[in-house]
Specification:
Elements lengths: L3 E4 L3 E5 L5 E6 L2 E4 L4 E4 L3 H18 L6 E4 L4 E5 L2 E12 L2 H7 L6 E11 L8 E2 L1 H6 L5 H24 L2 E12 L5 E4 L7 E5 L9 H4 L6 H14 L1
Helix pairs in contact: 1-6
Bound molecules: adenosine-5'-triphosphate and magnesium ion (MG).
Organism: Apilactobacillus apinorum
Catalytic activity: 5-amino-1-(5-phospho-D-ribosyl)imidazole-4-carboxylate + L-aspartate + ATP = (2S)-2-[5-amino-1-(5-phospho-beta-D-ribosyl)imidazole-4-carboxamido]succinate + ADP + phosphate + 2 H(+)
Keywords: ATP-binding, Ligase, Nucleotide-binding, Purine biosynthesis
Protein backbone atom coordinates (compact mmCIF):
# COMPACT_ATOMS: atom_id res chain seq x y z
CA UNK A 1 0.00 0.00 0.00
CA UNK A 2 1.30 3.39 -0.91
CA UNK A 3 -0.37 6.55 0.31
CA UNK A 4 0.02 10.20 -0.54
CA UNK A 5 1.97 11.95 2.25
CA UNK A 6 2.01 15.46 0.87
CA UNK A 7 1.70 17.32 -2.38
CA UNK A 8 2.68 20.77 -3.52
CA UNK A 9 2.43 22.74 -6.72
CA UNK A 10 4.66 20.38 -8.71
CA UNK A 11 5.36 17.15 -6.80
CA UNK A 12 3.49 14.40 -4.97
CA UNK A 13 5.22 12.45 -2.20
CA UNK A 14 4.15 8.88 -1.43
CA UNK A 15 5.03 6.37 1.28
CA UNK A 16 7.10 3.30 0.47
CA UNK A 17 7.55 0.02 2.34
CA UNK A 18 10.46 1.71 4.16
CA UNK A 19 9.32 4.30 6.75
CA UNK A 20 12.41 6.45 6.16
CA UNK A 21 11.93 6.62 2.38
CA UNK A 22 9.44 8.54 0.24
CA UNK A 23 8.76 8.30 -3.49
CA UNK A 24 8.64 11.71 -5.14
CA UNK A 25 6.45 11.88 -8.25
CA UNK A 26 7.23 14.84 -10.52
CA UNK A 27 4.10 16.16 -12.25
CA UNK A 28 3.76 18.33 -15.36
CA UNK A 29 2.32 21.23 -13.31
CA UNK A 30 4.17 24.48 -13.90
CA UNK A 31 3.41 27.59 -11.90
CA UNK A 32 4.35 31.26 -11.89
CA UNK A 33 3.34 34.42 -10.08
CA UNK A 34 2.92 32.83 -6.64
CA UNK A 35 0.90 29.97 -8.15
CA UNK A 36 -1.55 32.29 -9.93
CA UNK A 37 -0.62 30.73 -13.27
CA UNK A 38 -0.67 26.92 -13.19
CA UNK A 39 -0.39 25.00 -16.45
CA UNK A 40 0.34 21.42 -17.45
CA UNK A 41 3.40 21.27 -19.69
CA UNK A 42 3.75 17.92 -21.43
CA UNK A 43 6.82 15.91 -20.33
CA UNK A 44 8.05 18.55 -17.84
CA UNK A 45 7.75 16.20 -14.84
CA UNK A 46 9.83 13.48 -16.49
CA UNK A 47 12.51 15.91 -17.65
CA UNK A 48 12.76 17.61 -14.25
CA UNK A 49 12.90 14.26 -12.45
CA UNK A 50 15.82 13.22 -14.65
CA UNK A 51 17.61 16.57 -14.24
CA UNK A 52 17.07 16.65 -10.47
CA UNK A 53 18.23 13.02 -10.15
CA UNK A 54 21.45 13.72 -12.07
CA UNK A 55 22.21 16.89 -10.08
CA UNK A 56 21.45 15.37 -6.67
CA UNK A 57 23.46 12.22 -7.50
CA UNK A 58 26.36 14.49 -8.50
CA UNK A 59 26.05 16.50 -5.26
CA UNK A 60 26.01 13.28 -3.20
CA UNK A 61 29.31 12.33 -4.85
CA UNK A 62 30.82 15.77 -4.34
CA UNK A 63 30.54 16.27 -0.60
CA UNK A 64 26.96 17.56 -0.26
CA UNK A 65 24.59 15.42 1.84
CA UNK A 66 21.20 15.18 0.10
CA UNK A 67 17.91 13.29 0.41
CA UNK A 68 18.36 11.65 -3.01
CA UNK A 69 18.55 7.83 -3.11
CA UNK A 70 17.80 6.79 -6.69
CA UNK A 71 15.67 7.47 -9.74
CA UNK A 72 13.08 4.69 -10.09
CA UNK A 73 11.14 5.70 -13.21
CA UNK A 74 10.89 8.50 -15.74
CA UNK A 75 8.86 10.62 -13.33
CA UNK A 76 9.73 9.20 -9.90
CA UNK A 77 12.67 9.09 -7.51
CA UNK A 78 13.26 7.80 -3.98
CA UNK A 79 14.16 10.32 -1.30
CA UNK A 80 15.08 10.06 2.37
CA UNK A 81 12.17 11.38 4.42
CA UNK A 82 13.04 14.58 6.27
CA UNK A 83 11.33 17.18 8.41
CA UNK A 84 11.34 20.16 6.04
CA UNK A 85 12.80 23.43 7.35
CA UNK A 86 10.29 26.20 6.43
CA UNK A 87 12.92 28.33 4.69
CA UNK A 88 13.94 28.73 1.09
CA UNK A 89 17.64 29.36 0.65
CA UNK A 90 18.35 31.42 -2.46
CA UNK A 91 21.91 31.80 -3.78
CA UNK A 92 22.67 34.42 -6.41
CA UNK A 93 25.72 35.04 -8.60
CA UNK A 94 24.13 37.69 -10.86
CA UNK A 95 21.17 40.00 -10.27
CA UNK A 96 17.79 38.82 -11.56
CA UNK A 97 14.21 38.33 -10.38
CA UNK A 98 13.27 39.65 -6.93
CA UNK A 99 16.81 40.83 -6.24
CA UNK A 100 16.94 42.93 -9.43
CA UNK A 101 13.55 44.44 -8.61
CA UNK A 102 14.33 45.09 -4.93
CA UNK A 103 17.61 46.90 -5.59
CA UNK A 104 16.85 48.35 -9.04
CA UNK A 105 19.93 46.73 -10.59
CA UNK A 106 20.49 45.88 -14.23
CA UNK A 107 19.49 42.36 -15.31
CA UNK A 108 22.54 40.12 -14.72
CA UNK A 109 24.58 42.75 -12.89
CA UNK A 110 27.63 40.88 -11.53
CA UNK A 111 27.59 40.51 -7.75
CA UNK A 112 30.89 41.07 -5.94
CA UNK A 113 30.39 37.80 -4.10
CA UNK A 114 27.58 35.22 -4.07
CA UNK A 115 24.53 36.44 -2.14
CA UNK A 116 22.60 34.08 0.15
CA UNK A 117 19.03 35.01 1.08
CA UNK A 118 16.40 33.28 3.22
CA UNK A 119 12.68 33.33 2.52
CA UNK A 120 10.06 32.12 4.98
CA UNK A 121 7.91 29.43 3.32
CA UNK A 122 4.39 30.62 4.07
CA UNK A 123 1.91 30.79 1.21
CA UNK A 124 -0.47 33.16 3.03
CA UNK A 125 2.39 35.62 3.57
CA UNK A 126 3.72 35.02 0.02
CA UNK A 127 7.10 33.70 1.24
CA UNK A 128 8.57 36.92 2.69
CA UNK A 129 12.34 37.45 2.86
CA UNK A 130 13.77 36.95 6.37
CA UNK A 131 17.11 37.99 7.82
CA UNK A 132 19.01 35.56 10.02
CA UNK A 133 18.00 37.72 12.99
CA UNK A 134 14.31 37.53 11.97
CA UNK A 135 14.56 33.74 11.67
CA UNK A 136 16.14 33.31 15.12
CA UNK A 137 13.71 35.81 16.69
CA UNK A 138 10.74 34.00 15.16
CA UNK A 139 12.20 30.71 16.47
CA UNK A 140 12.25 29.23 12.96
CA UNK A 141 15.81 27.91 13.33
CA UNK A 142 18.87 28.36 15.56
CA UNK A 143 21.65 30.76 14.56
CA UNK A 144 24.00 27.78 14.28
CA UNK A 145 21.71 25.91 11.87
CA UNK A 146 21.25 29.10 9.79
CA UNK A 147 25.05 29.30 9.43
CA UNK A 148 25.04 25.65 8.32
CA UNK A 149 22.37 26.42 5.69
CA UNK A 150 24.37 29.36 4.39
CA UNK A 151 27.56 27.30 4.18
CA UNK A 152 25.71 24.45 2.43
CA UNK A 153 24.17 26.91 -0.05
CA UNK A 154 27.60 28.32 -0.92
CA UNK A 155 29.08 24.82 -1.27
CA UNK A 156 26.26 23.77 -3.64
CA UNK A 157 26.90 26.98 -5.59
CA UNK A 158 30.59 26.12 -5.97
CA UNK A 159 29.95 22.54 -7.11
CA UNK A 160 27.14 23.49 -9.50
CA UNK A 161 28.84 26.59 -10.94
CA UNK A 162 31.80 24.38 -11.93
CA UNK A 163 29.49 21.72 -13.37
CA UNK A 164 27.40 24.22 -15.37
CA UNK A 165 30.55 26.02 -16.61
CA UNK A 166 31.61 22.70 -18.18
CA UNK A 167 28.19 22.64 -19.90
CA UNK A 168 28.66 26.20 -21.26
CA UNK A 169 25.85 27.34 -18.95
CA UNK A 170 25.85 30.29 -16.52
CA UNK A 171 24.29 29.57 -13.12
CA UNK A 172 22.62 32.92 -12.35
CA UNK A 173 20.75 31.92 -9.18
CA UNK A 174 18.87 29.04 -7.58
CA UNK A 175 16.59 28.08 -4.70
CA UNK A 176 17.26 25.27 -2.22
CA UNK A 177 15.19 23.62 0.49
CA UNK A 178 16.68 21.67 3.37
CA UNK A 179 15.31 19.20 5.89
CA UNK A 180 16.35 17.46 9.08
CA UNK A 181 16.85 13.69 8.83
CA UNK A 182 16.17 10.99 11.44
CA UNK A 183 19.68 11.59 12.92
CA UNK A 184 19.01 15.33 13.40
CA UNK A 185 21.33 16.31 10.54
CA UNK A 186 20.56 19.02 7.99
CA UNK A 187 20.44 17.59 4.47
CA UNK A 188 19.55 19.10 1.10
CA UNK A 189 16.03 18.10 -0.01
CA UNK A 190 13.30 19.01 -2.54
CA UNK A 191 14.56 19.50 -6.11
CA UNK A 192 17.07 21.30 -8.29
CA UNK A 193 15.83 21.81 -11.84
CA UNK A 194 15.20 24.58 -14.38
CA UNK A 195 12.05 25.29 -12.30
CA UNK A 196 14.26 26.40 -9.41
CA UNK A 197 17.40 27.77 -11.14
CA UNK A 198 18.18 30.52 -13.64
CA UNK A 199 20.40 29.00 -16.32
CA UNK A 200 21.72 30.82 -19.38
CA UNK A 201 23.51 29.54 -22.45
CA UNK A 202 26.91 31.23 -22.24
CA UNK A 203 27.09 32.02 -25.97
CA UNK A 204 23.65 33.56 -26.41
CA UNK A 205 22.50 34.40 -22.83
CA UNK A 206 19.29 32.58 -23.78
CA UNK A 207 17.26 31.35 -20.76
CA UNK A 208 17.19 27.54 -20.45
CA UNK A 209 14.81 27.65 -17.46
CA UNK A 210 11.38 28.66 -16.15
CA UNK A 211 11.93 32.35 -17.03
CA UNK A 212 10.70 31.39 -20.53
CA UNK A 213 7.36 30.41 -18.92
CA UNK A 214 7.33 33.33 -16.44
CA UNK A 215 7.99 35.90 -19.17
CA UNK A 216 5.84 34.01 -21.71
CA UNK A 217 8.53 34.31 -24.37
CA UNK A 218 7.93 30.88 -25.94
CA UNK A 219 8.05 27.11 -25.33
CA UNK A 220 10.20 26.37 -22.27
CA UNK A 221 10.70 22.65 -22.96
CA UNK A 222 13.53 22.94 -25.55
CA UNK A 223 15.64 24.74 -22.91
CA UNK A 224 14.84 22.10 -20.25
CA UNK A 225 15.77 19.30 -22.68
CA UNK A 226 18.98 21.11 -23.60
CA UNK A 227 19.95 21.22 -19.90
CA UNK A 228 19.16 17.49 -19.55
CA UNK A 229 21.25 16.57 -22.60
CA UNK A 230 24.22 18.72 -21.55
CA UNK A 231 24.05 17.22 -18.02
CA UNK A 232 24.00 13.66 -19.42
CA UNK A 233 27.19 14.50 -21.33
CA UNK A 234 28.93 16.31 -18.46
CA UNK A 235 28.24 13.86 -15.62
N1 LIG B 1 12.79 14.55 1.36
C1 LIG B 1 11.63 15.14 1.65
N2 LIG B 1 10.93 14.76 2.74
C2 LIG B 1 9.73 15.34 3.04
N3 LIG B 1 9.17 16.34 2.32
C3 LIG B 1 9.84 16.77 1.22
C4 LIG B 1 11.10 16.21 0.82
N4 LIG B 1 11.52 16.84 -0.30
C5 LIG B 1 10.56 17.75 -0.61
N5 LIG B 1 9.54 17.73 0.28
C6 LIG B 1 8.30 18.54 0.28
O1 LIG B 1 7.43 18.04 -0.71
C7 LIG B 1 6.39 18.98 -0.98
C8 LIG B 1 5.98 18.95 -2.41
O2 LIG B 1 6.90 19.60 -3.24
P1 LIG B 1 6.46 20.77 -4.24
O3 LIG B 1 7.71 21.27 -4.87
O4 LIG B 1 5.36 20.30 -5.10
O5 LIG B 1 5.89 21.84 -3.20
P2 LIG B 1 5.62 23.39 -3.47
O6 LIG B 1 4.48 23.63 -4.34
O7 LIG B 1 6.93 24.02 -3.79
O8 LIG B 1 5.04 23.78 -2.09
P3 LIG B 1 5.70 24.12 -0.76
O9 LIG B 1 5.38 25.56 -0.61
O10 LIG B 1 5.03 23.23 0.25
O11 LIG B 1 7.17 23.85 -0.91
C9 LIG B 1 6.95 20.31 -0.46
O12 LIG B 1 6.25 20.68 0.71
C10 LIG B 1 8.40 19.98 -0.14
O13 LIG B 1 8.90 20.80 0.91
MG1 LIG C 1 8.47 23.25 -5.09
Amino acid sequence: MTTLVTSGKTKELYTTENDDVLRAHYTDHTTAGDGLRNELIDNKGAVNNQISSLIFGYLNQNGVATHFIEQVSETDQLNKKVEMIPLEVVVRNFAAGHFQKRFGTDYLQTLKQPVVEFFYKDNDLHDPIVTKSDAVGLDLLSAEKLEQLEAAGLKVNQVLTDLFNKMNVTLVDFKLEFGINADGEIILADEISPDSCRLLDKDTNESLDKDVFRKQTGDMMPGYLEILHRLQKAI
